[in-house]
Amino acid sequence: MAVVIRRGSRLTRPIRYNLDGDLIFSVAKDQQICAWYAHNGERLGTYHGHVGAIWTVDVDPTSTMIASGSADNTMRLWDVKSGKCLKTWEFPTAVKRVEFNEDGTKLLGVTEKRM
């Protein structure tokens, strides 16, 4: 099965499925994270809070939280259902990658090297 997401030209990578495969999360330079139904590509909702391009997103194994990293030098933790930002970490440079560990108890953020 193929799913087409119509998001516009400002889409960045990665795009992540949740563990169950029923939801897709995408990030973009428009400062929004979007949640989509995997079976039809319909947009479920958006997460707002970053003030720079969003470079990365990951979903925890229980599909209750997502994490994002942005050019605004923050990593954010979000509640999937409510869309509420649960926590924000600030760094000296952009956050280029976020990733939960296998059981979702740890979150890794990778920033740009500071010169």
Task: Give a short overview.
This protein is mainly β and 115 residues long.
What structural keywords apply?
115 residues; four-stranded antiparallel sheet; WD40_repeat_CS; Serine-threonine kinase receptor-associated protein; 10 strands; repeat; translation initiation factor activity; mainly beta; Lipocalin
Which helices and strands occur, and which strands form pairs?
Elements: E1 11-17, E2 23-28, E3 32-37, E4 43-48, E5 54-59, E6 65-70, E7 74-79, E8 85-90, E9 95-100, E10 107-111
Antiparallel strand pairs: 1-2, 2-3, 3-4, 5-6, 6-7, 7-8, 9-10
Model description:
With 115 residues, the protein is mainly β. It has a single domain (11-111), classed as Lipocalin. The protein is built from no helices and ten strands. A four-stranded antiparallel beta sheet has the order 1-2-3-4, with no helix packed on it. The protein is globular. The N and C termini lie far apart (45 Å).
What is the number of strand segments?
10
Beta-strand percentage range = over 45%
Helicity level: under 10%
Rg on CA atoms, Å: 13 Å
